[in-house]
Specification:
The protein has about 675 residues and is mostly helical. The protein contains 22 helices and seven strands. The strands form three sheets. Strands 1-7-6 form a three-stranded antiparallel sheet, with no helix packed on it. A two-stranded antiparallel sheet has the order 2-3.
Amino acid sequence: MSVSRTKTQSVAPRFGRIDADISLVEAAVTRSSDYILSQQHSDGYWCGELEADSMLEADYIFLHVLLESGDPARMRRALTEILRYQNEDGSWSIYPGGPGNISLAVKCYFACKLMGMGPDDSILVRAREWILAHGGVVACNTFTKIYLCALGQYDYDAVPAIPPEIVLAPNWFYFNIYEISSWSRAILVPLSIIYAKKPFKKIPTEQGIDELFVGGRENANLRLRMDRKNLVSWRNFFLMADRAFHWVEAVYIRPLRKLALKKAEKWMLERLEMSDGLGAIYPAMLNAIVALRCLGYSDDDPQVIRARDEFEKLGIEDAGIPDYSEPTFRMQPCMSPVWDTAYAVFALGEAGVSRTDPRLIKAVDWMLTKEVRHKGDWAVKVRNAEPGGWYFEFNNEFYPDTDDTAQVLLALSRVENPREQLQYNISQRAIDWLFAMQCKNGGWASFDKDNTKMIFQYIPFADHNAMLDPPTVDITGRMLEMLAEYGYSRADKRVERAVQFIFREQEPDGSWFGRWGVNYLYGTFLVLRGLEAIGVDNHEPQVQQAAEWIRMVQNPDGGWGESCHSYDDPITRGVGPSTPSQTAWAILGLLAAGDDRSDSVAKGVRWLLDRQKANGEWDESTGQGASHQALYTGTGFPRVFYLAYHMYRNYFPLLALTTYKRAMQSAA
């Protein structure tokens, strides 16, 4: 990847400036506010589309073929969506412009064959050549291989074991399911049921993918091999344990299997309650449907019906993409109403919408109904805290997260609710819960406290790079901004611990890593806003070094962008095509660092003004027709799964322009 950067001066001359006329900024703010308000749901919330890669549609086809269910016409439209994203080299990528991904390519290829495409089709010829050149099916991750096993395309004894016995470990035991991330937990428990039951559906030979095994399937060595050069590593310890478990299964020595399956079933059913499907996230929901059927639940069982209904709600029918006439069907990984509503309310409040505006009050009242009042998985480690906070989706009572909770609290601070006492009580409960969730090192993670045991990354089935939920600076920066809004300062030891955590995590070039947004631009802007809010002087070297880094990575067109590739190669941090959301993050970061004078800020603001549409929104996509794709600036799992939040391109620029306008007015 080529690196193109421009360096601008830290301070622009007072005269001859390139600042946009303040009236133009105000007009853009008004247009943006009006547009966002026009998107509000009648119930009070906002919920933009959440877009991800083609693995969702491929897995959708897999599920319905396996269970002999689904609407064939919808499945064909899902295939049309998959074909839109094939790269010229035959692969599929997990983010626009990224390299091919072997697991995704195999899944998409298999989906094509399941839907009746022949191996001589030019689409599959190109895909097959790429897949074989990159190791074939054997190079896929564990989750992909288990799905292939269910349709007879891989051998169960050749995949890493995911035994349901993992749910039997007591909570005090070093290896228990609450020491892995909440999302992996929700995915793996039903997957362990699937692994134990080993569902199998025979499909026609012509739909199989034997041709994707390098040297042919009959000659492929599907057994796991240990690295003889490093027999003392944790990785190989777990590989030996995995082989031992496969041997135990082969001779039917499974004394705890029945008990484990019962507990896994109970665990899953409990978390299907008060939730839009298990964990309210796509892979857990899909696995839960298959697991229920494996356990003997019939198609017309209420649990199966409800699980399927919640799963199908994630789908979006598209009558026709601009300049592309064919209708398509795509799946979302989850829905984001609490997150989008919190950010929309906060941005609108900052933009000057009245604190008593009925539309904002309606949004706040909706958010208050989503407060968590039951103990979820987080309570295993945080036993004495009262439930509080918010989740990301419409309903997900077992899994509130600190990031949503902090952003909701920021939104609440921008509205004068007639039910003042109720809002105050809920806010205080949420803050108490957040302090209880603070990790030992002073930072905050998303769903759990001190979920940091690195050893879990070496488990053979942990090749999805998402086993842990460690504290992150982006969440911690947001936390500082929120706490400052509610009267906390560095005099509070908990706050000071968070500040010191952030300082320790700064990169040598001045940036900060972004776990939940792409990437260093996201982490750096949230940290700088948090530090400014909590009272860290913007002349501190950490702050000025971060601001200089932002200026250094500005694009020649005046905007900022960063590709998901920076997770694979940190040298490319801050490098990518300019986008509205990332340009807004950079401007917000610079303003938080006290930079309202540089040409960098002025050029960034002009970039946003020049690209705003007449209706007040911004575009964050690339290509036309079949190649039209949203650019991904959200992060699910680094190096594995990325997201395009369709509202990011609107409420972040609104927040940036508003903050800039206020800075200019203060300086006048």
